[in-house]
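2024-03-11 09:14:02 INFO queue: dequeued item Tetratricopeptide repeat protein, len=352
2024-03-11 09:14:02 INFO validating residues
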Amino acid sequence: MYGKAFAPEYQGALTTLSVNSSLTDVLAAGTEQLRAAERAGARGEAARSGLAVAEAHRRLGQVADAERAWKASYRTAREAGDTGAMAWALWSGGTLARQRGALPLAWRLLRLAAELGKHAGDVVVRGYSLAGMAETGRIQGDYEAVTTLHEQLLAEARKRGEARHTVWALEGIAQIHRNTGSYDTAYAMFEEAAAIAAGAEDRRGHAWALRGLADIVSVRDRDPERALALLGEAEVSCREMNLVSALAYNHKMRGNVLYRAGRYAEAREVYAQALAEFDGMSEPRGRALARLGLVKSLARLGRDRAETGAELDELVGVLDGIGLRHGRELIRGAREELGLAPRSSAGREAGR
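2024-03-11 09:14:37 INFO prediction written
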């Protein structure tokens, strides 16, 4: 039913690159082809080579380089009158904005990308852009607004037999079910995503699906050893492909699993590792979530209650700034879990 996964963001002379190509190899090939296209005055080819360069930088966590690359790709595509390439560049920019935690900007860029993709008749970039909008809304916690879009994109991907997009949509819907407490449904969807990704040789999608399964196994089944084994399997792919962001989120989930198992000292070390990784790629959402895990672990290990409360108060502002609608609920839950007074009483608590 599903063919081998492919990477439509690798275009022009770079279509021979695999979805599983090491990102350092993609960056090297993309940069070489970009320079060759610029020397030849081939603007369309330069724009499409520049897209691969932008995506490699983004996935390697090199935010400033990714920002320059997608904007250069867009400018070159516009000069060439290539609407489809313009749409792909905006998709890359919107995806980078989401990674950086600039969610309103991500939404605007991805919406523009979808519109340009439709105008250009490029159903793939339109689909990827709509998928990016759905993921942005899901990250913000606006499940009601984006669940239908996720399901529509899943149906379209299944109809086309497009494995990579099917896996992405399944994982997005599964995450919504997980976050709303429907663990069995979430597990089944992550399991299907893992199977499709494995069959299509989509190692990136497979790694993210394993991370989702590990989360459910930890929360629902209270089986930390199996969860850690799943994360370990996913980590192999992340390292071999240099998936910096996916690896950091893998480590953050490892911290979650250890914390739930009451292994607070181990969780503290892993959360600190993930925090450093998110710092290195300027990823504020991951950084805030890893920091929250670290705060909770330190509290369990005897940190001063007033200091813990003060840092949780600070994290409220950080999560609000990113635009996470459920951020305050996360902090409220952490306070209840740690036996701290509600935020409104933080001042009295600090003065005790």
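2024-03-11 09:14:37 INFO annotate: The chain is about 80% helix and 0% strand.
2024-03-11 09:14:38 INFO item closed
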